[in-house]
């Protein structure tokens, strides 16, 4: 079993919350939709407050920034990949290409970064920072979110 | 990610998760998930391969055509975590009076600086500035040699942060030194822990801290769990 298989096997055993009557939104046609990225890689700029271990807060990333720091605390994934190509975690340039081609309507002006290693109960992210991040994207007219883990 | 999808969907935003742990996507059942059996840390698949990344996005956006959920679809291509080693030149021994790991860290500074200049950013700096990396390695050497880790001078008292900075310094430097294509999944992790003096010192220092009876959070995350 390689390291990724071991991590997947371990992660599969973690407790998982369930959602009663989950929402299912019908977005506008993709060619008219504004798309944002939400990543759990704890990406942030040098101007931001760095993520702490177990940090439940989020950072907003301006669409034009590429000087992003990998703030995630886990050593258990391929941390070097993001230094090779930011888009392998945060596909901002791919989205801009799709917008230029008319495949998607627009790329959101701001994107969201959380830290993936959250406290087990997920209470803060469910009740506080998650809804706050969603509200920020709604204010920017975001219709569709692509969530990228590490 | 799947939990966040429910939260964003409840706020009126359609979501698509690029799932990396399939069992979790099944359990949490986000509205739309494209499971990508890719190496962890590479949710879009291949660094430097725009066509592949775009194809992943095309499969993800196709899920927006579904009229009800939850939807869980597997991306048709699996990427295995290979064990292909990188060919990465390490600096020659320069100062025989220094421990090999410290000398090695110093010798990588130019490559590290080139890497930062080319990419415009560094992820080193959690607890150790790039100028302090060699000194931080010296702290690990002392711990590996038997010094008390509680008084050895771990920057900020946080061994995990220090080891993140040291490993990131090495990996960012290595990007300027590898021959051939971009390193494969975890290839630079393997290089660091198995081929560099400092990687071996990190492992040795971690073992010493563990053997001292320190609580697991102090030493466990100094390296990947598999090491």
Describe this structure in words.
The complex is a heterodimer of chains A (150) and B (227). Chain A is of the alpha/beta class and 150 residues long. Chain A has 4 helices and 7 strands. In chain A, 45% of the residues are buried. Chain B is mainly alpha-helical. Chain B has 2 domains: 2-74, no CATH class; 100-222, no CATH class. In chain B, strands 1-2-3 form a 3-stranded parallel sheet, with helices on both faces. In chain B, helix 3 (50-62) links the parallel strand 2 (32-35) and strand 3. Strand 7 (144-148) of chain A pairs parallel with strand 1 of chain B.
Chain-wise SSE layout:
The complex is a heterodimer of chains A (150) and B (227).
Chain A: H1 3-11, E1 34-39, E2 43-44, E3 58-62, E4 69-70, H2 81-84, H3 92-100, E5 106-107, E6 110-114, H4 123-139, E7 144-148
Parallel strand pairs in A: 1-5, 1-6, 1-7
Antiparallel strand pairs in A: 2-4, 3-6
Chain B: H1 2-10, E1 14-19, H2 22-28, E2 32-35, H3 50-62, E3 71-74, H4 100-107, H5 109-119, H6 133-144, H7 159-174, H8 187-195, H9 197-211, H10 216-219
Parallel strand pairs in B: 1-2, 2-3
Write a brief caption for the model.
The complex is a heterodimer of chains A (150) and B (227). By secondary structure, chain A is an alpha/beta fold. In chain A, 26% of the residues lie in helices and 18% in strands.
Low-confidence stretches of chain A: none
* End-to-end Cα distance of chain B: 26 Å
Number of domains of chain B: 2
Helix coverage percent of chain B: 40-55%
Radius of gyration of chain A: 16 Å
Number of domains of chain A: 1
What is the chains' assembly state?
Answer: heterodimer
| Succession of helices and strands of chain A | HEEEEHHEEHE
Portion in strands of chain A = 15-25%
* Sequence of secondary-structure elements of chain B: HEHEHEHHHHHHH
The structural class of chain A is alpha/beta
């Amino acid at each position: 079993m390689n390291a990724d298989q071991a991590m997947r096997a371990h992660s599969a055993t973690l407790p998982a919350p369930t959602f009663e009557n989950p929402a299912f939104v019908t977005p506008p046609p993709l060619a008219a939709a504004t798309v944002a990225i939400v990543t759990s890689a704890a990406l942030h700029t040098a101007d931001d407050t760095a993520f702490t271990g177990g940090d439940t807060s989020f950072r907003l990333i301006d669409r034009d920034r590429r000087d992003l720091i990998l703030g995630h605390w886990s050593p258990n994934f391929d941390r070097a990949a993001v230094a090779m190509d930011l888009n392998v975690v945060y596909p901002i340039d791919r989205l801009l290409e799709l917008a230029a081609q008319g495949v998607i309507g627009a790329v959101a002006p701001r994107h969201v970064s959380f830290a993936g290693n959250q406290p087990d109960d997920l209470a803060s992210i469910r009740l506080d920072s998650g809804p706050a991040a969603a509200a920020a994207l709604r204010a920017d007219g975001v219709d569709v979110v692509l969530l990228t883990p590490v | 990610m799947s939990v966040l999808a429910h939260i964003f969907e409840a706020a009126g935003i359609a979501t698509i998760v690029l799932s990396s742990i399939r069992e979790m996507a099944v359990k949490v059942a986000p509205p739309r998930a494209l499971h990508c059996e890719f190496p962890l840390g590479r949710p879009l698949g291949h660094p430097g391969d725009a066509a592949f990344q775009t194809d992943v996005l095309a499969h993800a956006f196709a899920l927006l055509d579904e009229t009800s959920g939850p939807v869980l679809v597997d991306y048709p291509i699996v990427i295995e975590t290979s064990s292909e080693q990188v060919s990465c030149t390490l600096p020659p021994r320069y100062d025989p009076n220094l421990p090999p790991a410290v000398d090695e860290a110093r010798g990588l500074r130019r490559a590290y600086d080139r890497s930062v200049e080319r990419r415009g950013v560094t992820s080193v700096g959690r607890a150790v500035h790039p100028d302090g990396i060699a000194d931080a390695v010296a702290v690990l050497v002392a711990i590996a040699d038997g010094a008390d880790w509680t008084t050895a001078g771990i920057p900020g008292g946080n061994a995990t942060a220090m080891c993140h900075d040291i490993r990131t310094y090495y990996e960012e430097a290595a990007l300027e030194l590898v021959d051939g294509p971009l390193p494969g999944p975890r290839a630079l992790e393997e290089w660091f822990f198995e081929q560099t003096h400092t990687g071996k010192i990190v492992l040795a220092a971690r073992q010493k801290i563990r053997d001292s009876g320190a609580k697991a959070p102090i030493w466990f995350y100094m390296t990947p769990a598999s090491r």
